[in-house]
UniProtKB/TrEMBL annotation:
Pfam families noted in UniProt: VID27 (PF08553), VID27_N (PF17748), VID27_PH (PF17747)
Annotated ranges, domain Vacuolar import/degradation Vid27 C-terminal: 407-742
Stated name of the protein: Vacuolar import and degradation protein
Signal peptide coordinates: none
Length: 763
């Protein structure tokens, strides 16, 4: 049971005058020239009444502080219009509350056909209302400005404070759902020669009621008792507790002033305990899927809590500054030890501060890019809709490639214009290309990958102008697959005592050149490999650096300039400007293993992939030098910008985050975007937004199957290549949408049926 309470009960403040009238222009809170319509039931019919043919809609102050009303005013343009509305008062008022269930209904591409509208309901009387905007309000951004003011008013009413204190995270709680108009009835037989079917305003609203999102049945958490008496308390504070209700799409207060403890029971096993007077106790372990998000400015922490196979999002509003620092610092320690199983106390003070600051830091990077506009302004044409290729258009080779029992396991992007990507599936590799006369990429070539003794593929790298592929198998052996003759022409190991962990080209785009050497790592060494060397030992000795300590290297990446970044299972990242010597910079760990790395075109940004989050480092020192070629002072090491998904979005996803390799867009035009995937979602961040601290301004696209890998087409940042378990697709950046209930709950983009599915359906 959710209990309402006064969110200001813990503090005593003097309510200031409403800032709406002083900080918001009248035009932003007024829509004119619209129509006001009422809908109500009469028996089995829905009655539509055109109340005012000429009306305005305005947001006004109510009598109570931080309270507002929607006022519909009759503004007749003729005597006949006045006569039509004589039975109603010329002003109709509605309290601007969540119970109105305000929503936006978009019009068709031509707003003259069906213009956009705002709808709301009065549950007490069982009636619905619609304000139909005039078509020009879209072109003049009037509706967008009006909706922005609505969100500000709803924030002020919910939190009893000025909207000037509203963060981007707060704003997302008050997004109005947007509905697109249906193209027509799903039941009625279509006229095969009919043009695009246009619905009347009445039919459009009724059709939308039949196309509503799946009904969410929200079950509040039952709570759970702590498993035992804690051994140690890391932090104990009081805070206000909120719960995200996904059916209402907002956080609602549970109780003010609950007791919150961070405790541990065994080494590296931490729990969060919440006790209140009117709620059941909540206790759960801190684990990778907890996904904590910190907002230092508002002293708010949100995270995910799992109970009975259900995912919830909790929010703590911490009142005291001292409590905030105690709780955020202790939470960072818990996360570090949970991931790394290394005592936090063994880290030096600088590294401890690094961990704490990374989780609660909100200071933007120094973003100086003068071209901060969307890439589409550069003249790159975007495809509004990229239709998927029908199964009948697939070649026999493509049908066979997708029909075997294996699944697509990995994808490597091509850096040559005639190819798009290399996809690996079981014992085969497929090369996918896109011709100018095609919208989709198609399978152009396949090759068998013959790995000995049932070994499985661990890594693949295009080589020698992409005429070959180097295959690293589970026994750390490298097989050279020549694509022209489709045969393994050479096999070798790195040599030495430690097995090869990972390979990288000598520079970021070297795979498209004739460069023969590579960069390799073992668990404690970084070295250059030259396959042309005689014998089984391919390491160039004077370009090898072994570390005495157990560095646990896991992944390596190179930049366009040949700089090298090496990540480890411990979570630290080393930056090298050359081989055979120590790293110039070591970026401390946050605890999670580094799964993948990428470096921006100018080597300024290093992007690290962890399972639950991404880390973006700005490795410039502000004096024209990079961390690759000059060490940072101990107190000036760059704090990463953490890229996570909002806990409330994960509630809708109903599955923990598990990021695939994150990359920048590729090409010589500079970096604009960061792309990754988790589950059936492709996630996109704009680099300039991230650098300015807007880490939650991401867009998403949902598919009907899990995404194996996603990346930008080389030199075409408006096109994204997506590899699913049984398909490879080309999609458009314009198909990425802001996260919404509609995106999460409706089915994802359908993929092409595989040959196996086709055969199964025909039988």
């Amino acid at each position: 049971m959710v209990l309402d309470f006064d969110t200001t009960a813990t503090t005593t403040t003097t309510t200031p005058p409403s800032p709406l009238s002083s900080s918001t222009s009248t035009t932003d809170r007024l829509l004119v020239g619209g129509k006001f319509i009422a809908y109500y039931q009469h028996g089995n019919k829905t009655i539509t009444e055109h109340v005012f043919q000429d009306a305005s809609l305005e947001i006004v102050d109510a009598k109570a502080p931080f309270s507002y009303e929607l006022v519909v005013t009759h503004t007749p343009s003729s005597p006949s219009a006045t006569a039509q509305a004589l039975c109603y008062d010329k002003e109709q008022r509605f309290s601007l509350l969540p119970e109105l269930q305000l929503s936006i209904h978009e019009g068709y591409d031509d707003p003259e056909d069906v213009p956009p509208s705002l709808t709301w309901v009065d549950a007490e009387f069982g009636e619905a209302f619609e304000f139909v905007c005039r078509p020009s309000c879209i072109e003049q951004n009037e509706l967008q400005s009006f909706v922005k003011v609505i969100r500000q008013c709803m924030f002020e009413h919910a939190f009893q404070k000025s909207h000037k204190l509203m963060t981007s995270e707060d704003a997302c709680q008050f997004e109005l759902p947007v509905f697109n108009p249906p193209l027509g009835s799903h039941r009625l037989a279509k006229n095969t020669i009919a043009d695009h079917h246009k619905l009347s305003t009445t039919n459009r609203l009724q059709s939308k009621r039949h196309l509503q999102l799946p009904k969410i049945q929200f079950l509040p958490p039952a709570g759970s008792e702590p498993p035992a008496e804690p051994e140690n308390f890391l932090a104990s504070i009081q805070a206000d507790l909120f719960l995200f209700e996904n059916d209402n799409e907002r956080y609602v207060p549970l109780e003010a002033g609950v007791d919150v403890d961070l405790v541990n029971y065994d080494p590296f096993h931490y729990w969060i305990l919440i006790q209140g007077d009117s709620i059941p106790p909540i206790s759960h372990p801190i684990e990778p899927r907890t996904n904590p998000n910190f907002n230092k400015e508002d002293k708010v922490v949100t995270w995910n809590y799992y109970e009975n196979n259900r995912c919830y999002s909790l929010l703590l509003k911490i009142i005291e500054e001292e409590d905030w620092h105690e709780f955020a610092g202790a939470f960072g320690q818990c996360i570090f030890e949970t991931f790394s199983h290394v005592p936090f106390s063994k880290s030096c003070k600088g590294n401890q501060d690094f961990v704490i600051n990374a989780h609660e830091n909100n200071v933007p990077f120094d973003w100086r890019d003068s071209d901060d506009d969307d890439c589409s302004s550069e003249g790159e044409a975007e495809d509004e809709d990229l239709d998927y290729v029908e199964e009948a258009s697939l070649s026999e080779d493509a049908q066979r490639f997708f029909s075997n029992e294996a699944k697509n396991s990995s994808m490597v992007l091509s850096f040559k214009d005639n190819n798009s990507c290399f996809v690996f599936r079981g014992g085969e590799m497929g090369i996918f290309s896109k011709r100018d006369d095609q919208q989709q990429i198609t399978l152009s070539h396949t090759a068998k990958m013959i790995l000995k003794d049932g070994r499985h593929l661990r890594q693949a790298i295009p080589y020698l102008g992409e005429s070959s592929i180097l295959l690293v198998d589970s026994e750390n052996q490298v097989s050279h697959l020549d694509l022209e003759c489709e045969q393994i022409v050479n096999e070798w190991k790195a040599g030495g005592d430690d097995p090869l962990i990972s390979l990288a080209p000598s520079s970021k785009y070297a795979q498209a050149t004739d460069e023969p050497t590579l960069i390799g790592i073992s668990s404690n060494a970084v070295f250059r490999l030259d396959p042309r060397l005689d014998g089984s030992h391919k390491v160039v000795e004077d370009e090898c650096k072994k570390h005495i300590a157990k560095t646990q290297f896991s992944v390596v990446a190179t930049s366009q300039q040949g700089y090298i970044a090496v990540g480890s299972r411990k979570g630290d990242i080393r930056l090298f400007d050359q081989l055979g010597c120590m790293a110039k910079t070591t970026l401390p760990p946050l605890g999670a293993p580094i799964l993948a790395l990428d470096i921006s075109s100018e080597s300024r940004y290093v992007l690290a992939t962890c399972s639950q989050y991404l880390m973006l480092f700005d490795v410039s020192n502000g004096h024209g030098q990079l961390g690759f070629n000059k060490a940072f002072d101990s107190n000036e090491k760059p704090i990463p910008r953490l890229l996570k998904l909002r806990p409330e979005h994960i509630v809708y996803m109903d599955q923990p985050v598990s990021f695939t390799k994150a990359t920048f867009d590729v090409g010589d035009k500079g970096d604009k975007y960061i792309i990754a995937s988790t589950g059936p979602y492709v996630v996109l961040w704009k680099l300039s937004d991230v650098c300015k601290g807007r880490t939650y301004d991401y867009t998403m696209q949902k598919f009907d199957k899990p995404v194996v890998a996603a990346g930008f087409h080389y030199q075409k940042r408006d096109k994204i290549i997506v590899t699913l378990e049984d398909d490879v697709l080309l999609t458009s950046r314009s198909q990425q949408k802001l996260p919404s209930t509609r995106l999460f709950l409706l089915p994802g983009q359908a993929t092409r049926p595989s040959a196996t599915q086709t055969a199964r359906s025909s039988s």
